[in-house]
Amino acid sequence: MEDLLGIETLPDPLLDAGEQFFGIRYLFPYQRLAIHNILDSCGYFQEESDAFGDQIILLPTGAGKSLCFQLPALLLPGLTLVVYPLLSLMADQYRRLREAKVPVGILKGGQSEEERASLFRSLKNGEIKILLSNPESLSNPRTLEALVPLSITHFVVDEAHCIAQWGETFRPAYLNLGYIRAALKPKVTTAFTATASPFVLEKIREHLFKGFYPHEVSANPDRPNIQYSVIETLSKKRTLRTLFSSTSESEKEGTQRPALVFCRSRKRTEQLALTLRHSLQEKEIFFYHAGLSPEEKKKIEQWFFRSSTGILAATTAYGMGVDKPNIRSVIHDEAPATVEAYLQESGRGGRDTQPCQAILLVSEEDRCKVSPFFRGYVATQGCRRLFLYRGLGMELDGCSGCDRCNHEKREGIEGYESFLAFLRKNSRRYTEEEAIHLLRGRPSLLTVSQALYRSRWYGTLQWWETEELKEALDNLFRQGRIRKGTFLWKNRLYLAMK
User: Which of 104-126 are b and which e, b meaning 16 or more Cβ less than 10 Å from the residue's Cβ?
Assistant: First the structure.
């Protein structure tokens, strides 16, 4: 092989395989380091090995971690077994590997006896290089017994943070991975994740490596193109509508869209999608959650992948393994349980290295539900990026963008002072329904019958929707700023004493 200057260069089997199967022309240094260790541990270089053996690899979302086990699988004899957390991830990787002409099989629940028999014949005959599965399928005694005689070279656990986050709650099969690994006796085991705190790393060592300390390969997980910010709000629906409102298609394709809005429940995704469709008068807004049929999921995934202006309200069912490169906004309707989850989910944006905003919405309702970490994240007057990564036990040299370091000034919580000023002047005068009609300033039977249109406060918040005003008042009630009167002033609103 010669380079452009006519100088002979050494052959590079990694790049040769990468270009042949995946069309890549280069590898990042941390990818080479991880791959070299896997190959060296399996005796690929046929020389005395100084390899580290088992390893935990931390690579940021979109950094190409799949290549770190796919390329060795093509170069090594035997089978590479990859454990995924979600069926959708398995199906996506299966499709991609098939398209790349890589011999791949899939082992999952719900397969017929004929499908299983055909799969294991192919495995015994060495016709499959990569087998995709999940913890539940591998925990089946019959399945494990059938896998033990096979020559498994490399045991891979992708999204390994799930061991800590799910294993001790609703996915106990994750805690079996250490026993499964011991039964299969692979030459090398590798755990991959994008973000992991010391606590999560310790859980991975405890349950997968049974207390052994494997080598760690870690690229800087910071994504400098992601701008972190927090918006405190009385109405999340109002805030989302404001963020996504625009007057032209070119503005939609600016810093806001395509956008992914993470919600904690299926019902919330449906509510938000419907509300935004109505308020923005747009059709390119959908929801996505685990309750959809496979056909519905695929249809929405394909639509969002192609869309340049779409908005998708989704649970974390859409999260892991998503490869849409040009998501411009990732908005959290509510803080996740852990900093790892937040960085994983916000990392779905900006995978094309272009600017992306990661916004956390916070209302009074959230304050009693979020973890102490996220209460600190919201309240901090310092750098939000540094605060997040300190939650992983890391220190960064500086910040490439957050609302604090950018000195972004928001003039308080939208609508907050207007509500308080209104109630100072109209204490115990209006019910909640009357206040909403008055502040919105829309002609109705109530505004006419009560002569509300004569008030100087009529239409003060005319750009707010009725649902948004109701949500704002609910948050002021939770905050203890307003109350409802009794007796002669029954249900009349007034400001609470501080």
Answer: bbbbbeeeeeeeeeebbeebeee
Phi, then psi, of 481 in degrees rounded to 5: -85, -30
Domains and CATH numbers, the chain: 13-218 (3.40.50.300), 226-390 (3.40.50.300), 416-495 (no CATH)
Q: Which residue has the tokens 């600017």?
A: 355
For residue 78, the tally of other CB atoms under 10 A from its CB is 16
Sign of the Cα pseudo-torsion (17, 23, 25, 30, in order): negative
What does pTM read for this prediction? 0.78
Nearest alpha-carbon partner for 470 in 236, 171, 270: 236
pLDDT digits (tens, 9 = 90+) for 36-60: 889 888 888 765 455 568 999 988 7
How many residues can be counted in the chain?
A: 498
Measured distance between the N- and C-terminal CA atoms of the chain, rounded to whole angstroms: 78
| C-alpha–C-alpha distance, residues 330 and 347, integer Å | 8
Please tell me the distance from the alpha carbon of residue 42 to that of residue 54, in angstroms, as a whole number: 11
Q: What angle do CA 472, 473, 478 make, to 5 degrees?
A: 100
Main-chain phi, psi angles of 189, to 5 degrees: -125, 135
Lowest-pLDDT choice from 79-83, 176-180, 207-211: 207-211
Burial of 133 (C-beta count, 10 Å sphere; 0-12/13-18/19+): buried
**Which residues make Cβ contacts (< 8 Å) with residue 227, sequence separation at least 6?**
355, 356, 357, 358, 401, 402, 403, 406
Tokens of 82: 């990859």
